Queue: 4 jobs
Job 1
Amino acid sequence: METKELKAIDANEKKKIVKLNQSSILPGSVRIKVSTLVAEVIPQDEVLPEIVINEDIEEVEEVEEAMAAAIDVEGKSKEELAAMLEEIVQEPDVAKIKDQVTAIRVRFMKLSKEDLDKEMETYIEGGGDRESYQHVMDDAERRFNAAFGIFKSNRARQNELMDAQKLENLEQKKAILEELKQLIASEETLKKTYDDFRALQEKWKSIGQVPATENANLWNTYHFLVEKFFDKVNINRELRDLDMKKNLDAKIALCERAEELLNETSMSRAFKELQKLHEEWKEIGPVPQDKKDEIWERFKAATDKINAIRREHYAQIQEEQNANLATKTALCEKAEELLAEELTSINAWQKKSTEFSELFKVWRTVGPAAKKPNEEIWARFKGAMDAFFAKKKAFFASLKDRQSENLERKINLCIEAEALQESTEWKKATEQFKRIQEEWKTIGPVPKRHADKIWKRFRAACDTFFNRKAEHFGGLKEEEAANLAAKQALIEEIKNYELKPNRNENMEAIKAFQKRWIEIGHVPMKHKDSINAEYRQAVDALFDRMRSNQNEISTNEYREMMEVMREDPEGGEKFRKERNTLATRIQKLRDEIAVLENNIGFFSNSKNSELMRAEYEKKINKAKNDLKVLEAKLKIIND
């Protein structure tokens, strides 16, 4: 079949093309026409459907393909998986075992992550922090890593061999291109030329992959020369139609295989198989013109359906990833709220640490987002967690310093209490112990390992003193009760005392009462005030009976009475009260005398006025006499 481009080239140009320089695949001037000529082999309307490759999707597909591998890893332990891997990696051909190794590795990494999360959670709940945690590999992890290292070494070695093989394949295909050019220029018979051509085609197909950078140009050149061969050697239409029919059968088979992929449950496997089918499609030559559009539309329809299913599949994955991202964003915001709170107590830190642990547990149940956002949101969440535990670490570091200071202060209080525990100055020591105990309450916690020991030491010193005090004062209760009875009897004696005619005898009796009262010891504290008040009332009553009229008491008697009162250890208040009373009465008499002397001047020289005047003078004289007595008594007190 002649192409539109070849029709435009004259006979001389065709002759030049046939005589291509055998030392070069294609000169630059000829390569300009390649795209046009190839367009006849694969027309412009037969452009392969777009196959979009996405990094995130590839990552998901790799996991899906691994999980679908022909090996059962579900329910296996890490030890069993390590043993399986050790056996499988003995196969040197990594292509045969790649899917099985991937399935084992996915399952093993999942179990390892679960174990690591549990270890981390236990370590954090025990008071540790993420930064200081160090994972120690178990035997299963070491065996797994060793076996996987063998696989990686074999894979690296096989990749090197594959790269070398691709370079060798490239040279072989370049050699075939040179042979095609020679075949195009050959003058051999049609049968031999066609047989050689078919042999070169089969040889071309049998050669494996070449480096990706050379593939497009190599493929274009090959189809250009194939087309030139059909045009130059003028193969008869029947032979060409036969070849096109074979091509049609091959493409029908590809369509059927593509349509079977619609039932494939693994989307990643279906997509990779579809890519292989597209590569094979490009290797097959042209088909009859009347079937070209039909067969292409059939293949394109299957491709479009697979692509549509694939897009729907990954749209659903993307929707799930977006929902996961929203959930993880909310968890980040909650973590940042917890981080912003100001915590000042151990309980508060422990409570917030528990809340962070709960957030982390929830985080682990949420599936992944798209690759890049997932990395960013994890960095955000991890940043909040790291910042929180850094603040917690700093808080407890400062807390340790404060606890050490508190321990030193409590040790000093223990020393002070121990110095007082044998004291017999009960009142003074008791006040000091109360002060020490109050100060102890204001001191914060000490390091946990010292708390019980320092408290027992302090408590022992306090108990020693107060037990001694209780023992000491326990023996005084009976004595105090007897003293109370003795004082009550003395009060009754004072109340029943019969006054003697001789005032001195009465004063001596009062002194004797006071002496006996003082000689009687302490009474129970709860009765002290009441018994003292009762005693004062009895003594005061006795004094009142002794002086029915204070004006009749001589100065000497008053002086004796004041001396008795002064000797009374509890008579100070009574003494001050007596002085104030005298001062008040003296001032009142002075005011009264001044008023009477002022009023007496108003009386005239009449009989009635003389009587009134004499009455006033009598009152004035009496007041002045009383004033002298009171002033004398006040002088005694002041002296």
Job 2
Amino acid sequence: MGIRSLAAELLPSALLQPARDRSAQAVPRPEANDFAALTDKLGYLSKAELKQVREAYKFADEAHLGQFRASGLPYITHPIAVAGLVADWKLDVQAVMAALMHDTIEDRGVTKPQLIERFGAPTAELVDGLTKLDKLHFSTREESQAESFRKMLLAMARDVRVILVKLADRLHNMRTLSAMAPDKRERIARETLDIYAPIAHRLGLNQIYRELQELSFAQLYPWRHGALAKALTKARGTRRDVVERVQKEVERAFGAAKLRVQIYGREKTVFSIFRKMREKHLPFANVTDLFGFRIVVPTLQDCYLALGVLHQLYKPVPGRFKDYIAIPKANGYQSLHTTLVSPLGTAVEFQIRTEPMHAVAESGIAAHWMYKVKGNSKSDDAQRLGATVLKSLIDIQDDTRDAAEFLEHVKIDLYPDAVYVFTPKSRILALPRGATPVDFAYAIHSDVGDHCVAAAVNGEAVALRTELKSGDVVEITTAPGARPNPAWLNFVRTGRARAKIRHHLKTMEQEESRALGERLLAQSLRSEGLLMPSADPSDEAAAALWQQLIRWSGNRQRGDLMVDIGVGRKIASIVAKRLAHLMAERGGERPDAVTLSMRHFGAASEGPAHHGHVVIDGSEGASIQLAACCHPIPGDEIVGYLGRGEGLTVHTAECSVGKRLYERDSERWLPVEWAEQPVRAFDAEVSVLVQNGKGVLARVAAAVSATETDITHIDMGGERASETTDLKLTLAVRDRQHLADALRTLRRAPSVMRVARIKG
């Protein structure tokens, strides 16, 4: 019959074994930490390569001499165990040597040049990529963690073996975590669950992914883990008969079809059961698919034949079939998934795949070393796949400078569940569940995302915040003048999109703040009777003057100083006085009466300013904002408040919030005025008391529309309707005169009892 069944061996031992016994088996035996045990695994290396490994072991042993782990074992047992895990994947000699020496730079003061001289540059680069940045000073542990991870990510982009060795290191640390202090155990387990387990999943290293999740869960929630493990052990006993019956019937069906298969028993991990219970709000008794089978067949065609055999044997559950062979997962995973109803009514999942697919499913990128693809370099294949899988993470680090923000984006982007959508040219993209057309646009290219204005899904126009579903065909419409909208940050799901949007907004904000800082400093210098020194680097005298001022301010360069002035971190008048003092010291330059009078009005090249005032025309960006408390509009008397790190905020002169700020910090107030021809409409809030009745809202809208005014927002309050309702309208108006016209027209409208502008 040709059936090779492993389920009979697997089910009584691994599948039906108590969880506590299996976790005990996961911990490496003491002899596994011995170098002799490691060499037994390295039979795939040549004699010359084995000699290099021995030299690396001796070097690491000497470096760690006298150092012990928290468990009391000699420290060298850890690098040997990590090298053993690397050897299980059949990684090359450089990766094995790097695993043995991965802590020598960080813990023992060995330098990278020493490693290059003794073991070569490739091995030294791997070790350096695995070394944290603990020797540098960081203000917080989170910043140190983020920067160390960023460094590893850059090294990983150059060589995917860096992350493979790092995951082996993290797995052994998690297996031996019980010797650590409780707070350190919790921190390491949380970091593993948030970052390293998802990376293992991204790279297709499913065995490591599941074990890292399970070990982290046991450390973070020991009571929940223990209770679920106990319940799983009990369920395993009660469902033994079902599993054995299904196994025998499946074997007979494949035998009758003359199809050679290998059958592997599979059981959900405790963590995956916990996650399913939490996400679907299920009690343990309602989690039916605790057990399943993997069917491994010789060829691709046999996968679909096996699927037919199973569907003839048991009824499939509608909507529970997935073809990951035709559309592979982003990490290269391929299998057919189908859920069938067993003879006793329980759901049983089957995964059908070929032997190479099975290798990739369990070992992911590492399978490229274990199973060399004919005609291709195994390391090149793995590097190419690693670069594809981790491209978005590398893009995120390019666009993010803040360490905490970088780590936040990475955690978002490592979210494992995915939907698979198509471009109009049938290219498949994998995106996180809940992703929107904006995420799709950034996944195609950052330029497409930055200039996105509209989207169509399956040929129909949709809002940019629409959630995409697997199988959707998405088309993006772009416009050259379009820019990212800050509101997109409220609904995008990928770290790449979030990082790109924030990067663009910060760049725009910095440019605007720099321009405002230039204007404010030039204005303050004119008040001192001086002109702004040249910013031309070829002007040596001016360059030396700016250098002195930059050293005094604590900034790195002139542009940073202007940004600080523009966002209010530094006061322009104080900087101007210091600059005037330096100019007097260096060249005896004194205030000039002509400058005080003639230059007081400013030149066109120094930006629009009248009589020393900052001019507001509505084209300002993030560096100049209109206060939400009083909604100033052209025609209002206004003042400007330069908040610390917030840029310039414009208030009406009678705003109570503005008055309180003035009393607290009067030196931060600047003269501002409206431009003669503003370039856009401005929001004004209006209160309209109406008598309730049929069509009253339509009459109010018609009255507003008659004055060529737009209603941008309506608030009808949360109270139940009575005889009257107080409507809060936000109107887009050109100036005070336009608003007055709208209010006059509203007062004459039927059912309107009272109209007034809300001034804060």
Job 3
Amino acid sequence: MNILLVDDDRFVLGSLNANMEWKSLGLDKVFNASNIAQAKQVIKENPVDILITDIDMPQGSGIDLLTWIREKNYDIQTIFLTNYADFAFAQKAVELQSLEYYLKPIEFDKLELIVKKAIKKVKDNQKAKKAANISIMWDDIKANIPEHFWGSFINMDNSLSADEIKSRLSKYHLSLSMTDKFFILMFDLYTITLTKDNNINYCCSNPQELGSKFKAVYESVFGKLLSTYDVLLEITPGSNSFIGIITCTDLDMNMQVQILKRYCEKLIQIIYSKYNISISSYVSLPTTLANFHSSLQQVKSMEANIIKCQNMVFLQQDYKEVNPEYTLPNLKLLDEYLQLEKREDFVDYCHKYLTALSDYNRLNNKVVVSFQIDITQLIYSFLKEKGILAHKLITGKTKDILLELSTSSLESMIMYISYLVNAALDYVAFSSSDNSVASIICDYINIHFCEDINRNSLAEIVYLDPDYLARLFKKETGYSLMNYIIKKRIETAKDLLVNTNLSVNIISDKVGYGNYSYFTRLFKKETGVTPLDYRKKKKQSN
């Protein structure tokens, strides 16, 4: 605890410091100031609990100082020590909640009693603040107890006994019973779309922000139904998947399910209109704590197998698990669409095929995975025919994200197929355009000719098969790849021989030939003379 003494009379300050046993009173530090400016600086830089100040000072009164203290919300017990028995001063001091108005001359035993009173006031205030903070913390904890309970309970296995569940309820001070029933709601949020240039667009780039927005809309829509023990939890951070737990009421079960369905539909409509985010929603049958985990697994199974699902609500009571046989799409027709570069027809066929399977209840996760494999293989085979390395072309973060999401919904699968088709046909069009690939390779060689480059490394740059690239380059330039590299290196060596005094050995290194003898033989083969003879000949002619 610290005290600040403020008086423009240095003898008063000296007397207070000499005659008061501050340490024995429990005051750790004693600060001194001779005017308001100094006092303010001390208060800004140090914790001050008690203030003893004169009223009448040249650069501002003690009343001014206490007014500033109250404006800045400093909690400081203030004692006025003054020569003036002025009623107006005393009244103002009371208004500013000063602790004491004490007239000089100083009687140190009386002043000690006043300081002890101030110390007690400081301690009482600190206790009150601590109690208030504890109360606020407890209110926050109580509000979050259901989240903590359900969050840990969901992640446990199904082997908890009734006594173990009761023990956990007791631990969290929750007055739930084993006969209470709950609905489980699952929500999957689809937050990405594919742009025209084949890149991912995130409807909400901040996962934490998305979670808070979704929770706010959820609470506004379901607010009338929610009890103290009802929660909304994100399954894993950043997963865009949420679980809602809602207590059953005494209403008819079918009526409650229909109410939940209407609320889910309203939630979907609001989220889509505000944030352009699609949602799949799943509603369980009522379940108890003892059967909670098995009910949760059933809802998850429903979620995994219902593929045509975005912006729709599915009820467990209506769900029937199917195990259909996979029937091949018309791969020959799809291949024709690729050959003719009819990307819209390709994607449209895939969409109609999957939709038809869904309408006839023949679409589940197993079927859609098989379909994905066939379509991917078809596109990769098409690229291979064109001499394009599909595994080099179709790679990266965009592909990985879309691939991971592709089996979660029909719409996600169509987005993934669109990405594959666009990437494939865009590159086929590019690689077959006049001088496009050859220009890229020539530009690359012109910059990197002194490095260790070969046919394979050049092929990787343009995602082409090395043999196909070699044929294409020769057709467009008239040179083989290696001859073009040699030509560029020899031309550069000629320039260095004529316009610099560098040794032939150094020039050999600069143009990419570490072996001096090999460079000399190659140079003579291309020009008819050795590098040294070429330099002499050019100097003589100049």
Job 4
Amino acid sequence: MSETPASLADNSVFRSLFEAYPDSLLVCDRHGSVVLSNPSAAALLGYADGELIGMSIEALVPDSIRGRHAAYREAYGKNPKPRPMGMQMDLVARRKDGSEVMVEIALSPIREHSMPLVVAAIRDIGAYPRVKQALQRARYSEHLAQLGRLAVDARDPQVVLDHVPTIAAQALQVEGAMVWLVEGDGQTCRLISGVGLAPGEEFGAHVATTPNTALGFVLSQGGAVVVADYRSEQRFAVPQFYLDAGLVSGLAVPLSDRGRHIGVLAVRSRQSMRFGADELHFLESLSNLLATSLQRAQSEEALNHAQRLESVGQLTGGIAHDFNNLLTVIQGTLQVLEELPALADEPYAQQLVAAAARASKRGAELTGKLLAFSRRQVLLPSDVDVNALLQSLADMLRRTLDQHIRIEVDAPPCPPCLADAGQLESALLNIAINARDAMPAGGVLRFNAEPCEALPVGVHGEVDINPASDAPLVAISITDTGTGMADDVRERAFEPFFTTKEAGRGTGLGLSTVYGFVKQSKGGIAIDSTVGRGTTVTLYIPRATASGATQNPSAADDAIAPGLRVLLVEDDADVRAVLETFLDTLRCEVTSCSNGEQALLALQADAGFELLLTDIALGAGMRGTELAARAQARLPALGVLLMSGFSAELLEADRDSPPAWELLRKPCSRGELARAIASVVNT
């Protein structure tokens, strides 16, 4: 006896499997009427359970193809067999509210029963794990960039504190988020801001920091704490109102300021085991941004204007590290998605890739903004009135420095220099800060500017100006009457992170950033110092051209002659493949090597290479800088472009490498690579 759809539904095993199946399932008869549907189908299409029964399948397809769908269905009925739909088109399902969702559909006839039925298995392609993960990480990056912009622009730390819980809750899609700060006595935490507070919580409430409390446990651990289920938590006492509010899982990370825990950022959910590695990394990055913002605010309260500039340099390193890690994850995910054959022709998947790329770009822009005091910032040179700049700087310093320090300006009429005005002022302030610290009992701080026809021999930095050539400059000197420097200190003064100040008073990046700025500006820097008699730091900045035209290095001609012979050295196979593709599209002739030893074998005089493009870190073998030096010893005319994903390596290479070597930060776009190559080969 044949079974009817009702008898099929009465089979308990079949019904259980059918209803539990994660994909949306519709069983249709020969007329295209839905005779069975599972809860997943109702949820996907926006209907209540059972509401789909009896509907025509044509009601679930978009208006644009509804007229043709019946013909497709009839053709399938003449030759039913398991197969996917839409091999030559994108499939879209129409929801009850009229919206559309991109789907995959597989059809399977039921052959075991006399009544001809067809099972349609429908899947939302946005449910693919890789696509969902990419979208999730893009959302996290978007919210981090949002907070980063706010942290940079907001002057009031309370504005940042008020926004963090909202950003955390929206990004993680959880019910509650809050920020607690440790009070001055270190014994309690105070609830500063939050969203989705449980009954029994209120702003300003205090909780003890003893390890048996939730907040105290986080502070005692000194790292992230994940709670899979508050109902079974044994490490600390769970407040009863957590359970009464239906809270099940939680994630909390400490806020740290120079190794000292100053608070806790926590999120909570009504779902069990809600927080994984991606959520943890996001919240840690969020807490780092918040802690950095609070640290900056505290520094601004304690320090004058010059000291605040120094504190910004101290803050940026950790933030850049977090963002670079996040960008690496996002861009790695994008590469995986781009290479998946199943998604190559899926517009919705490509839309997600584009969204993640935009979020990655915003993260990169934010990192660049936070690293405005680093040595690899983009400069915007213009004609700078040196006399006006020094007078303005002196006026500001008179209001902010100790009154025991007398400030003098000796700047007769001087031609304008060509530099980034904001970065030049920042460099002079960095030097003035060091001078102030060298005069604890007071003294004289003197600024001087005068024209200089060429860079003096022996100026530190081996800059891009030939001392023997006619290269007009402006020499800007800052002299103090302080303690001076010993010879060994003077020799290391430009090293990143080298400082003679006590802990908490400096980062060791002040003169390093000044040196980086001067080198990028095609100038030089010199130090003259005697112990007990004071120090003079002189910046040699190129003089502005007679035309007074503003130059923008970011607009440099990136044209590359076809057939450029490039030796590419990269130990990571995936990165090497991407760079090979970039170089191919730039019409270069590429020879690739995975290490420096292979590259040296390929570097024969008759090979005709014009450019060496090498990563700095090349695994266990020689470093890219060593390879470049040996390569140029063989082929002096060979151009060198160094790459690295680590800012510390770029800092070191920028300080020690010849000026003709160009540096490129990874990850990079094809356009950035082209501009860097053009800068080398067109010089």
